[in-house]
């Protein structure tokens, strides 16, 4: 890209990064930036890296260039790029704000070579606007079915590569940092069931049941458990698991939208990692549906990722990378807003807790598992998609650690207006082992 009238890649980098930065850049045009001894070593492999970022000067431009190999980082583990992401965070003090003249000079240098549209990775999904234009209005039953299928109907074997034997795709609960993932996931399921306080013979509805780990765990306790999911792959896996365990008389998993569940009077409902797909504007109606499904004095356990602070524009949502590559129409609300929605739907909220650190630990385990099973993961879904999942999980782990996102469990009770003067309500203080 360099010529007598233009600037080199290293000169462009210097417009945005201080020379004191712990960064080395080697570019395809032969130019370099920073000392060879720098701990972070980036290789810009071709002009597409520049075109991507000029066309989308945000995370999408960087992600596209990364996925397609337009730039690379020395020593990176594609299954677990967390250390590299941490190094980029450490670069923050060295980032410069370019002047308008600097931006104009970079743009002139790029366009002097004839700007061309950079390629889009095949694994990238349509933007929110493109989905709406095609008739998929966010959080309608049709849109939810397609977006859930986009994320989950990949390959059960691929998910097993990083989730491990529990096939539990939500935050684990660790007694300490040395606890292994399987025990921590079992501990999370135990904690939720203990909070719900269900007894043998009582009925549980698990909304967004995944591959069935909660349904199986509940049925092993003698609880009659129904799980619903919009993923055919997940339901097939769960149904086979139920048959292997011989729990057909207690456990069932259906491909069904929660809005279509015909049964009523459940003793307990759990929603574990489901609310991220519901849409913030639909929270109250979601909880109102749970209220109708429960019997009086029934309990709801809602376990979901939350955003730590409201967005500056006041609008909910997830970032563009997650929307296009991971969770189309994903949406996060603040914990205070969620608790208000539960309360305003008629529930008594009796307990909530923030498990933020536990999710960071969970994600580190998943990245480690993906690294251990990298070859099979690539076989299952292809190199680019496996690379996307490694980035997604490592970035989420970092975001939990930086307190950009959290995860909360809310325990609520559907009140019985009779009042029950005989005290048959629930214990005065938390009744479960933390």
Automatic annotation (TrEMBL):
<keyword id="KW-0443">Lipid metabolism</keyword>
<keyword id="KW-0489">Methyltransferase</keyword>
<dbReference type="GO" id="GO:0032259">
    <property type="term" value="P:methylation"/>
</dbReference>
<protein>
    <submittedName>
        <fullName>SAM-dependent methyltransferase</fullName>
    </submittedName>
</protein>
<dbReference type="InterPro" id="IPR029063">
    <property type="entry name" value="SAM-dependent_MTases_sf"/>
</dbReference>
<dbReference type="GO" id="GO:0008610">
    <property type="term" value="P:lipid biosynthetic process"/>
</dbReference>
<keyword id="KW-0949">S-adenosyl-L-methionine</keyword>
<keyword id="KW-0808">Transferase</keyword>
<dbReference type="InterPro" id="IPR050723">
    <property type="entry name" value="CFA/CMAS"/>
</dbReference>
<dbReference type="Pfam" id="PF02353">
    <property type="entry name" value="CMAS"/>
</dbReference>
<dbReference type="InterPro" id="IPR003333">
    <property type="entry name" value="CMAS"/>
</dbReference>
<comment type="similarity">
    <text>Belongs to the CFA/CMAS family.</text>
</comment>
<feature type="active site">
    <location>
        <position position="396"/>
    </location>
</feature>
<dbReference type="GO" id="GO:0008168">
    <property type="term" value="F:methyltransferase activity"/>
</dbReference>
């Amino acid at each position: 890209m360099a010529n007598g009238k233009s600037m080199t890649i290293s000169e462009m980098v210097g417009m945005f990064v201080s020379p004191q930065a712990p960064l080395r850049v080697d570019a395809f045009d032969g130019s370099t930036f920073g000392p060879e001894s720098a701990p972070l070593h980036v290789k810009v492999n071709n002009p597409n890296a520049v075109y991507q970022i000029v066309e989308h000067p945000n995370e999408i431009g960087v992600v596209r260039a990364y996925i397609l190999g337009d730039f690379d980082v020395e020593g990176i583990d594609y299954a677990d790029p967390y250390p590299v992401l941490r190094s980029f965070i450490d670069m923050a003090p060295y980032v410069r704000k370019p002047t308008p003249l600097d931006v104009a000079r970079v743009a002139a240098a790029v366009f002097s070579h004839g700007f061309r549209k950079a390629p889009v990775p095949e694994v990238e999904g349509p933007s929110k606007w493109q989905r709406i234009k095609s008739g998929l209005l966010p959080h309608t039953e049709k849109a939810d079915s397609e977006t859930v299928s986009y994320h989950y109907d990949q390959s059960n074997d691929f998910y097993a590569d990083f989730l491990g034997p529990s096939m539990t795709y939500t935050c684990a609960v660790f007694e300490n940092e040395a606890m292994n993932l399987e025990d921590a996931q079992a501990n999370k399921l135990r904690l939720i069931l203990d909070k719900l306080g269900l007894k043998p013979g009582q009925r549980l509805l698990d909304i967004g049941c995944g591959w069935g780990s909660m349904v199986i765990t509940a049925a092993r306790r003698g609880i009659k458990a129904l799980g619903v999911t919009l993923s055919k792959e997940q339901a097939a896996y769960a149904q086979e698991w139920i048959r292997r365990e011989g729990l057909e008389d207690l456990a069932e998993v259906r491909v069904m939208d929660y809005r279509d569940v015909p049964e009523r009077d459940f003793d307990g409902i759990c929603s574990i990692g489901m609310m991220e797909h519901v849409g913030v504007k639909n929270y109250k109606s979601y909880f109102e549906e749970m209220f109708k499904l429960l019997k009086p004095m029934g309990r709801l356990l809602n376990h979901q990722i939350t955003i730590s602070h409201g967005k500056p524009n006041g609008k909910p949502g997830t970032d563009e990378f997650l929307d296009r590559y991971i969770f189309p129409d994903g949406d996060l609300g603040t914990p205070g807003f969620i608790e208000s929605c539960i309360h305003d739907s008629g529930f008594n909220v009796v307990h909530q807790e923030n498990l933020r650190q536990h999710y960071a630990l969970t994600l580190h385990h998943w990245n480690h598992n993906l690294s251990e099973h990298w070859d099979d993961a690539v076989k299952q879904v292809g190199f680019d998609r496996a690379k996307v999942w490694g980035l997604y999980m490592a970035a989420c782990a970092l975001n939990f650690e930086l307190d950009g996102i959290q995860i909360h469990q809310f325990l609520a009770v559907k009140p019985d207006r009779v009042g029950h003067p005989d005290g048959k309500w629930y214990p005065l203080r938390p009744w479960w082992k933390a």
